[in-house]
Amino acid sequence: MMSLELSRRIRAISPSPTLSIDTKTKALLAEGIDVVNLSVGEPDFNTPDQASLAAISAIITNFTKYTPVPGIMELRKGIVNKLRTENELAYTPEEIIVSSGAKHSLYNIFMAILNPGDEVLLPAPYWVSYPEQIRLCEGVPVVLATDESTGFKVTPEQLEQAITPKTRAFLLNSPSNPTGAVYTPEEIRAIAAVLEKHDIYVVSDEIYEQLTYGVEHYSIARFSENMKSKTLVVNGFSKTFAMTGWRVGYVAGPLPIIKAMTSFQSHTTANPASISQKAAVGALGTFDQEHVAEFQHRRDFVLGQLAELPGVICAKPEGAFYVFPNVRSWIGKTYTRANQSTIVVDSVDTLAELLLTDANISIVPGTGFGAPDNFRISYATSMEQLKKAMNRLSDFVSRLR
Length: 401
Prior knowledge:
This protein is of the alpha/beta class.
């Protein structure tokens, strides 16, 4: 009998750990278990009314047909205006493509620019889907390690040393998921000065750009026209406007690459959902700065609580809505369960499983982010939930020996 197998590219990747843990968490919640979900990067604020009303209007007026593959002109013009006024970047609507979420946008980029064996320089810790998408497109992720000592940032010297004739792109994520690190304008310029000397693409994931605390977001595409000509700026509506389920992301970049991405998208998803596009038009310009203040309040609370736990090292994040504590000192310790049985915490993955089953706290282990000594806490939830979670975490740690 012929043996039927899955493709090599699918067998080479792993499911998203963040979504896998979120699925487990929601299953426990459905059983009535009081789990505090700190695993998923999903703002707890509501979608702006302007976006919802625009979507309702689109439904009522039957705006439910196919649209141009790269998105409706109204939305692309709105994105052009946003980039000009908020980021000091000049694009035309033809240099914009709208896709079904920023994750989709990133995949389109890698499909458009990578040939088999091409290398993508990937700072770690990294978002879990970056290396898997690169591999799906037959590229090779080349990890540039960072840690708390460097503020989770790549240095210009480290970047220069990593570039080889096989390097096709450098991936920059600022503010970062999972660390919350934000490159300063000076640090961005220093990185750009290295990249200007090389003929490689820059994939700049700026999905958390509005969520910074006391620091300025600076797009690397602003550095020079030369840098802009090889930078693909990725953004979307999920984080800024609490529109995760609407699935609207976009890329601004050089016209030849945008055209190539449009051609590829025409054979996969075609246009993003028409109603979601209208909602995105309604959302533009409605970002509520009070959300930033609330996130900062939550961040400071979680950092203060972590500082009281023994053996925790935690860099202060300046953006996004995550903290990424280093708990290397907990690995190898023994945890005593409520029934007095014991288990050795032999990895951060075991720690995450115990926190979920024994403490009813859902976090994401750092292994999927390329950081096996850390775990990620999302503080995109209420203070009430955060207080409950940190009390449970403190009780859990007290049982480690």
